[in-house]
Amino acid sequence: GAEFCAPMTAWHGHVNYLLEMTGRSDKTGAPDYIFLPVYLENKTSEKVARRQYCYYTQYSTPLAMSISKGKQRNRFLAPLVNYLYNPYYTKIQLYRILKPIVTDSLSFFEVAAAYDQALKFKQAGIDHLTKIYQKESQTADDIHVVLLGRPYTILDKSMNKGIPDIFAALGIRTFSHDMLSPDEEDVAAIESLLNELPWHYASEILRAAEKTARTPGAYPVLVTSFKCSPDSFITEYFKKMMEAHHKPYLILQLDEHDSSVGYETRIEAGIRSFQNHWSESKVMQAANPVSYPSSLKPKTETQLTGKTLIIPNWDNISLKLIAANLRNSGIDARILEETETSIQKSLRHNTGQCIPLNIIAQEFIDYVEKHHLDPAKTVLWNVESTLACNLSLYPHHIRTILNAYGHGMEKAGVYKGALSFADISLKLPINTYFAYMFGGMLRKMGCKIRPYEIKPGETDRTIGKSIQILSDAFYGKMSKEDAVISVVELFAEIETKPERNRPKVAIFGDLYLRDNKVMNQDLIRFIERNGGEVITTPYSSYAKMIANQYLRKWFIEGQYLNVLTSKALVATISQLEKVYAKYFGRILQEPEPEYNESAEKILSGYNIRIENTGESMDNIMKIYYLTKLHPDISLFVQVSPTFCCPALITEAMSNDIKANTGIPVVSITYDGTRSLKNDVIIPYLNYSSKINKTETLYKND
Hints:
The protein is an alpha/beta fold and 701 residues long.
């Protein structure tokens, strides 16, 4: 049911067609095996930038494999061919998957030699195409166009809507961007922007765009895909680049429809614009000077001394404790104020990016103006990310929104740092962890008690008092242990009904939405009002679920300092945590969880590799441990913002989640409008409530 971009939909369709061929009585032309290589990241010599494939690409093979049933899954050959491993690893994988299915004897050296030969053949082809462009673009005194886009959209006739043929029919020479081969000098002006981009193809497209902008007679045509989140970012940067060069351009967006109607008119208009510009440029005495806007010059804040640090408000409990911890370290830390008005205002900045980015930018503007802060002395905090989703571009793109807004906001800083705040001070991580733990435990205890409270509102009042007590502890006014004891005593005094027969609903999904009651339309209380009991996961527990997976990832990536510091932090915290856990256990009445299962085994049930990362992988780990710790869960609710890549991947796995756990999944996508989204849960809650009541009556009999 997830709605992807056109290339992803086509990929899914191709695999499904091949599988259907094998199921027919007439198997003429049906494949014995389907080759679905896994692409995660291009290993490069660049020390600053990562060159990952987009999030959809990284999970395209696992999702395609999920189409198959039973023994059909053995038909897939899915080696990991692009990652940070040595090429020897790829050769080993190819050998291992080919040897069992090749009838003749096959040696590793034959496979390795064939792989090397294939790479040489590919490089020779690229070199040949580059020479063709160099020759053709320099010998003709006329315009030509360069198609910018991913190769599977601009080169595949089933995807490109005949766009290259339309240009050819109009007498315009057309080239693809991978024929340009720009060098470092060609792209020096946008080097800092390229270093911010996490994606392989996005960086290649902008490199070629810069080269095209600097080439007389060359005009760029950017071919994008509808619902492609990376394209939504690079389209904005592409426009700014062309405007800086005073050069006309054309943007064509592909969708799932077959018709090319509509493209012809736009292409004809684009060609006229290109020809007019070319004629004018030949008679001009000098070229217009190129001045790059700030949106093409990424800049992040590094100095926090004497400044107010504003933190996005994705959890109004834990983040208040984190702010207290930061203030205790001498930092004027504050939390953004999430409102429906700010969320709706933020949508005017959105051109296809996941909407939390725009919300954070708008709420920062609103907060600074409401509290009369000096933008030049105010800094917005963002998490630093190396994942393939949009998160890594949040800091830069938010800054472009602030610059475009003006009114002094262009002077504000944007800081990117770790969730532990270790980059600010090495004294912060341990207490940061406990802030997440205590905040998560408050929410967890509230969800356990509130549905059964006798005095309405008492649980929420207790949570409010508890936040203040714990904030005082993080601010250094009392010990954390004494604070936890006081909080638990307050919860123990809440009078509750004896029955505990509500269906349990576990919430997972986007971290910005999950505990954000404004953005998710107060989902927890909505579920409670409609007869359910919510299971939540503290961020501290979430971190332990995925810790080993990310330690392994960092080791592969060479981030040895991260590995060492994280292991030391875990060792220190694990002992201290037990002291507090026993107090919270008095209310929660749950066994102490252990998160020691093999991640590889858990992920294999969804065809996900151990090298995959991101929120989708995290969700699968969380689902596994939730069902292990709470076997009586009746429903999973996945919460997602519009235009979120990991959310769509997880939503596409909902059938596999139900098959593996026996628990249905309801996916809710929040678009920032006031339209009610949570009502879709009600039928599931009503059904689960009837089942629970029937089981209770049966037990009583």
